[in-house]
Input
Amino acid sequence: MGTVGQNYKNGVLRVSVRGGLVLLAVAALVSGCARPDGTDVRGQRPLGAPPAPGADVQADKVRIQAARLRAEQARIATARRWGLKQVPLTAPPAPAEKPRITTRRGFEVDGHEEKGLPPVFTTIPTQQKIVFLTIDDGAEKDPAFLRMMSDLNIPYTAFLSDYLVKEDYGYFARMRDRGVTLNNHTLHHPYLPGLSYARQKREICGMQDVIEKRYGTRPALFRPPYGNYNENTLRAARSCGIKYAPIWNEEVFVDHWEYREWDREIHPGDIVLSHFRGRSDWKGTMPDMVRRFLDKVTAEGYAVARLEDYL
Output
């Protein structure tokens, strides 16, 4: 073989082979010393080069994280705007399998289960730290309450009486349009055990008719006024299409809480009662009541869930 001589000058490698001279461009200078991933020594990709493997996935992760951060910042700002001490906790997803609801011991009427009467209960059976907010009657119609609950995305269930809601059916239509279920609390809010079966049925079925006519659905939930009922109440409710009769385990007011249990504590799955009330009845407003409710349940590690998701 002939001898090979090499001389490097001005970016050109001169390779001398017997009988001729071959000029070769140095690839490192032409390509920027390209690496296996397509980047140069500075870690940059040439203009017009396709994205590096996995770049789209990484970019998606960054976008998702940024969106989550913006959402959390918005939740903090909303909680602060409504005067809350902490951001409310987010409830877990609705259960794929609904819990079995039975009447609370001591709240039965004779032959309750055998007669297929709607169960009366104060708590949803769950180990999760969730509670359910329910609001009764419909006397106060505070637009700020609707804005607050929508802004904070807090679920609640309403139990309505026609003698109060008829003053402004539109207010509760706006509530329904925000995803709130409107349920039955009788036409006139009487003490039901003092009425005959026929009159109880008129109170309950009559309110079913009002809600169906005004809001398009026939409720499955009924709460007896004052939490008082007898066998006729539940028989009448069943005949009107009622499936459940939830009452409550705690009640929250604008300035205090009241408890059914001796320990005066919130428990997983508890149903909390409040009312549509304002300054004419309370020392404050509906948003004041919501602040008292949310500050306590959040501080104790509870989220607010939607009652209908568990029935």
